[in-house]
Automatic annotation (TrEMBL):
<protein>
    <submittedName>
        <fullName>PucR family transcriptional regulator ligand-binding domain-containing protein</fullName>
    </submittedName>
</protein>
<dbReference type="InterPro" id="IPR025736">
    <property type="entry name" value="PucR_C-HTH_dom"/>
</dbReference>
<feature type="domain" description="Purine catabolism PurC-like">
    <location>
        <begin position="9"/>
        <end position="128"/>
    </location>
</feature>
<dbReference type="Pfam" id="PF07905">
    <property type="entry name" value="PucR"/>
</dbReference>
<dbReference type="InterPro" id="IPR051448">
    <property type="entry name" value="CdaR-like_regulators"/>
</dbReference>
<dbReference type="InterPro" id="IPR012914">
    <property type="entry name" value="PucR_dom"/>
</dbReference>
<feature type="domain" description="PucR C-terminal helix-turn-helix">
    <location>
        <begin position="464"/>
        <end position="522"/>
    </location>
</feature>
<dbReference type="Pfam" id="PF13556">
    <property type="entry name" value="HTH_30"/>
</dbReference>
<dbReference type="InterPro" id="IPR042070">
    <property type="entry name" value="PucR_C-HTH_sf"/>
</dbReference>
Amino acid sequence: MNSYLSISEILQRKHFEGIILVAGKDGIHRSVKWVHIVENPAIKNLLNGGELILSTGIGWGNDEKLFLSFVQELIECHAAGLCIELGTYIKVIPETIRLFADKHNFPIIIFQKEVPFVQITQDIHSIIINQQYKLISNLESYSQNLNKKLLEINNYEQILHILHDYLKVQVFAIVREHEITFVPAGRKAEKEALLKKIRTIENHSNAQVLTQPIQILGQNYAELYIYSPERELTEFDTVILDRTATALAQHFLRELYVEEKKIAEESKWLRNWLDGEYSEEAIQTQLSYLNPKLKLTGGVAFICKFRHQGHQSAAINDNTYLMLLFRTVFEQAGFQLFSMELHQHLIFILGDRRSPENWKERVSEGFQRINKVDGTGKKRLAGLSVGVGQYVFKLGDMFKSYKTAKETIMLQETLTEENSSYFYQDLHMYRILSLINKHSNLQETVYEYLEPVIDYDLQHNGELMVTLKEYLACNGSKQETSKKLFIVRQTLYHRLEKLEKLLGANFMQAERRQAIEFMLLAYDYLNSTRQSNPIRQNL
């Protein structure tokens, strides 16, 4: 499984007969990635780690300090070891050098006679290259076999068995943050001990454990681990782990698509659920049939709609992709997602598996994660409107949440992005204003109350409307209003006198003030709609 030779293996080659290991005997299992002949002690920028250095010591042999500095530099560069030819330039290895190398488990090997460095490098390099070529062939063979098995397997555990049989190590996967599968399977106590040990090792990098995240649609869906207490894991193990993780991702994605298609076929009962045709008991019975362990504390409905017909290209309108993306994100946020397609809208029910107190925060975080999806996912979400209805604590009341989700979508079509929100409960007074505007002439009502101020600002390029809003927001505090408007008090007093003349001296009395505040909100609502011009121009 190694693409490199260890120093102990190299010492068995013919050119290393009669050598003496004078220091660093605990480091002879180090891997050798390449062999360099070095005579210049200044080589720090020339090494990448794992090199076995051959030298006669011509550049530093007669200077113990320079010798020590050279060895120290090799250790800092993570060289595998140092081979020195005794003779002309070095007669003996100083004790300080031996002790320093022993301290860092850095092997120093002595040739007692002249050796052909060129032949040594050719011999070792040919072995390393042949081993790497063989490992590439093995990797390709493993990948082809894994791809064939993908067409036959029904459970991801079979892929874990393939990985275990090939590497002969402990394999386990954590799926959706809670489902853990071990291969080979052990007793419960052994599994718990292994998980505890793995977590300790992960916090302190160790060559006995490797992990690879499995991502689906930009989200972490699972973690794949291999662990070997008997040997250090190599780069080859890492590549095999990566190929296996890719195969698992393909398997999980296929399963999710099949599951999504199945759910789409079962959307008829979802439509009846949203129409309020099922009792609480009937809904619970159906959910128990789908998943006996499923317990929901409430839920909310939301609708996805493309803002413009032109966005519904073949790529963007891949509703199966969107349903799968939403499912992956929101199930990690503690929801059970049910989805259906109706009249080119995507409709979702989020059944809450957790406590409902923070449902809105979890839904908001889910939308934020979806908006951060890179690549094609981001293009598919372009131009998408989302309306989240009212949260309900009884599943039989889901039709109420669906109804309010539709109202939210309708309001979003008129409000600007600044005043819009995903959530029905955030629209507050805009819901009331929408109803009033639908059943009466809201513009005329607003003008009835605010006409003098609107006309004055238009004729004199004034700021009485701004002053009125701020004065009411500050509860009639002149000092606070002047600070908010960045004007002196005399200017504010002059504006308030104008407002009293235009609106009447009693405009700050309770009932009159409430009516004016409501009309100011209506004024902003009418001017914030996407299809409206400023209110004064419409009248």
